[in-house]
Amino acid sequence: MVFDARLLLASASPRRRELLDQIGVSYRVEPVDVDETPRPGERPADYVRRVAMDKARAGWARNNGELAALGADTTVLLDDEILGKPVSSAAAAAMLGSLSGRTHQVCSAVALVQGTRERVVLSESRVSLRVMGEEEIARYVATGEPMDKAGAYAIQGLGAVFVAHLSGSYSGVMGLPLYETVALLHEFGIGTPLTRGQVRDGAA
Ligand SMILES: Cc1cn([C@H]2C[C@H](O)[C@@H](COP(=O)(O)OP(=O)(O)OP(=O)(O)O)O2)c(=O)[nH]c1=O
């Protein structure tokens, strides 16, 4: 239990907790469940922003009205097609096969809600994975790491061995773009240990 938190993290993701811990932000965790089904014809960037905002709104609704609620969503896009979390080992292997030797996009949105105040920011990255053989894909899938990850890999885990190039935000690919997150937190008057002096209302 964190007592001095000014932020509610509307997420069950251990990666998002780890990333907020990394920059020294205190928060209380409140996982939420929102519909993550893309709407017909919805542009991927709009989809990611909408889901992040829905998570933040759901977090705010569970709150006692004191803490700003943060929601985030991360999606992998290959040729503008959304690759979500794999539903099975076979789906994970197929996803990795389609990403092998190619460059894909990772879109991460972070949203903050405090009452009627709502803001969402998008981070877009490009990641090139090297060619992966069938056997190494099978070995990677057998580790279990791909299963709860958009695009079936984790840049912060064993999957790092496949990442040939990244242009954009490492933390965004991992699930919470920290530069954008800190900018949003500032807008809402929430500082970090390093940036607290720059926040309008002082205390972090
Ligand atoms: C591409 C990539 C994704 N991921 C993860 C980040 C996200 O947690 C996940 C995408 O799923 P999300 O729906 O964004 O998040 P989540 O279900 O894990 O958590 P919550 O909705 O409760 O906030 O994929 C990695 O951890 N590493 C990577 O390299």
What series of H and E elements makes up the topology? EHEHEEHEEHEHH
- Please give the number of β-strands: 7
Would you identify the CATH architecture?
Alpha-Beta Complex
Q: What is the gyration radius calculated from CA atoms?
A: 17 Å
Total separate domains: 1
* CATH topology name: Maf protein
Largest sheet: 7 strands, mixed
Q: Which CATH top level class fits? A: Alpha Beta
The low-confidence parts are none
Q: Strand portion, in percent?
A: 15-25%
Which class best fits the helix and strand makeup?
A: alpha/beta
Q: In which range does the helix fraction lie?
A: 25-40%
Provide the list of bound ligands, each named once: thymidine-5'-triphosphate
Mean pLDDT: 93
Question: Could you give the distance between the termini?
Answer: 17 Å
Number of helices: 6
What form results from the Cα inertia axes?
Answer: globular
Written account of the structure:
The chain is an alpha/beta fold and 204 residues long. The protein has one domain (7-195): Alpha-Beta Complex (Maf protein), CATH 3.90.950. Helices cover 31% and strands 24% of the residues. It has helices at 14-22, 44-62, 89-99, 134-142, 170-174, 178-187, and strands spanning 7-9, 28-29, 68-78, 81-83, 103-114, 117-129, 163-167. Residues 11-13, 15-16, 31, 55, 72-74, 76, 85, 106, 148-151, 153-156, 173-175 line the site of thymidine-5'-triphosphate. Thymidine-5'-triphosphate (TTP) is lined by residues 11-13, 15-16, 31, 55, 72-74, 76, 85, 106, 148-151, 153-156, 173-175. It is found in: Cytoplasm. Its cofactor is a divalent metal cation. Keywords: Cytoplasm, Hydrolase, Nucleotide metabolism. The active site is at residue 73.
